[in-house]
Specification:
Order of helices and strands of chain B: HHHEHHHHHHHEEHH
Strand order of the largest sheet of chain A: 2-3
Number of helices of chain A: 15
CATH architecture of one domain in chain B: Up-down Bundle
Number of strands of chain B: 3
Structural class of chain A: mainly alpha
Shape of chain B: globular
Number of strands of chain A: 3
Distance between the termini of chain A: 44 Å
Order of helices and strands of chain A: HHHHHHHEHHHHHHHHEE
Oligomer: heterodimer
Strand content of chain A: under 5%
Largest sheet of chain B: 2 strands, antiparallel
CATH superfamily of one domain in chain B: Cytochrome Bc1 Complex, Chain C
Number of helices of chain B: 12
Distance between the termini of chain B: 48 Å
Bound molecules: protoporphyrin IX containing FE
Chain lengths: ~350, ~260
Amino acid sequence: MPESIKSIANALGDPRLYFLLTVGLLFSYYGFRKTLTKPAVFAGFMAGGVLFFFAGLSDHNFALIALKPDNVPIAFMLVLVAFFTWLSLRRAVINDELRKRGEPNLEEQVARQKVFTWPDLVFSELICLLVVGVILVVWSIYLKAPLEEPAAPAVSPNPAKAPWYFLGLQEMLVYFDPWLAGVVFPSLIIVGLQAIPYIDRNPKGNGYYTFEERPFAILTFQFGFIVLWVSLVILGTFLRGPNWAFFGPFEYWNPGKLEPLINVDLSELFWVYGLRQPLPDFWLIRELPGILLLLAYFGILPIVLAKTVFRRMYIEIGFARYQVMSQLFLFMALLPIKMLLRWAFNLKYLVHINEFFLNI
Amino acid sequence: MNKLLESIRTSQVWRSIFRHGPPVTTRNRTLAVLSNFFLHLHPVKLRRSGVRLSYTWCMGGVTFFLFFVEAITGLLLMFYYRPVAEFAYADIQALNAHVPLGIMREIHRWGAHAMVITVWLHMYRVFLTGSYKPPREFNWNVGVILLVLTLLLSFTGYLLPWDQLAIWAITVGSNMARATPILGHEGPFAGNLTWDGVQLVHAGNDARFALIAGRFVGEATLLRFYVLHCVGIPLAVAFLIAIHFWRVRKDGGISGPL
Ligand code: HEM
């Protein structure tokens, strides 16, 4: 693989660009869905990705990380998520088109036909099961399960990574303290998922693929699943090395690499840089700008949104549901907002109350 | 050949197991599903849209299959493995070294990774087809709990090889619990809870301590995770899967338009 492509890939892997690119990719995929979901276009993209992967393997550093036994399933996952995202959107585009023409959609066309469980369902289940079974056995023959050195509580490896499916949460530690990234956000993800059926009162799109009948629900979920979960797992697995520093896909994982931290708090920005006076001693006054900002974010912003962009939704789902929805939505948005603030202003904490060990 | 098959089909043994003729007629196809313990989870007939792979991606079914594979390979692995810090690592090493052509550990490990992925994809499909909408809200919730339990199954299993990868991944993962507000000794407000100058929540009694049975990932953690991994969580998952499947039927089968 030519060096120029390698250095471009290394540059694009930078967490900031990487994140903005994934967001851009997701939204442009939906924006230009009619063209981009054409099977040929999708096949082209996939072929390009696979080609990049195999060409990349000729590079020692790339192969080292990409072929680590525990990382192989994650590459598979990327392919599967891409495939199913395409498949669902493809069917949604077709269905939306059919609906506009007043014709029954792909699912409706066959929903009235009834088939027997034996043989139709039983045999497709059997085939699925055999295919998965064969894949699993072949995979297990060719790829040995890893076993590292025996456990040594005194020798901590660098990087020390959580199991791969939690690496999105570990990535959040760059932007938030552990009590948020490791406790509050995971709890809210679970609560948020459970709340979905009770918040989303839109009766359309039940039992068939569609995008235009429920764009907000789909885009919000996609943003959470693809951008904030899957893509951060990929970032944490393949692009975070020793000291949790960033490494491009073709970069050597140099344990000496340390990213300089020159972060400031909002209180410093406000009092020291803004008003040119020392930080107040009393925590409430010192942190007032951040506290007010958060109060406005969680208290006033929902009202503003209810009067503007979420106007229709507010009328449809009512006060209580809207409250739950908007709080969950704003919590989810907090992560990308904090990322942008970090990148733009080196902001570390919005609120930094050491007195209570409470940092946001 | 046909004669032989025919005589097997009409033998008393065969007929004691399958109480119906070959499933080629409507009547026998119905009986094939109704009179079979494993198949009676299914309805006799269903909408064609629900059978299509392009609709369900078969991800729920594959997740279930992988759970089954994990249970069997896990059982076999338990024959060779002792959850004691002294033996755990050596047992895994011995397994690699002494069992010719052994791939049980591989199937179990890759199957576990695959199950995490397929459960995500299943949730993804259920969301995209809006199948969480009434009347399936409750089953979606059962699903969310299954998702959490699947991750916990994988998390507790991650520790068992007792190598560097294992203990440090669990250390990093469980360190979060230290930061639980009030209940973790490094969490918000925990430091403010003092009695006569003594901190009430400390490393020896906080949320992390409860999770890993000690101040650091050690022998007690290994045993605790082993029990959860091999008995506790699988039982809970099996129980919830039973409810999940029952509810799929009660909620009107696989979702579809109309
Ligand atoms: C151990 C994990 C799980 C297993 C074994 C499992 C299994 C299944 C199976 C076999 C079906 C039948 C349809 C299909 O294959 O798609 C199904 C349907 C369903 N699952 Fe799951 N599931 C699991 C986890 C989940 C999760 C994480 C969710 C959501 C958060 C979920 C929500 C649902 C819902 C709502 C249905 C009904 C879908 C419909 O009618 O179209 N399940 N599940």
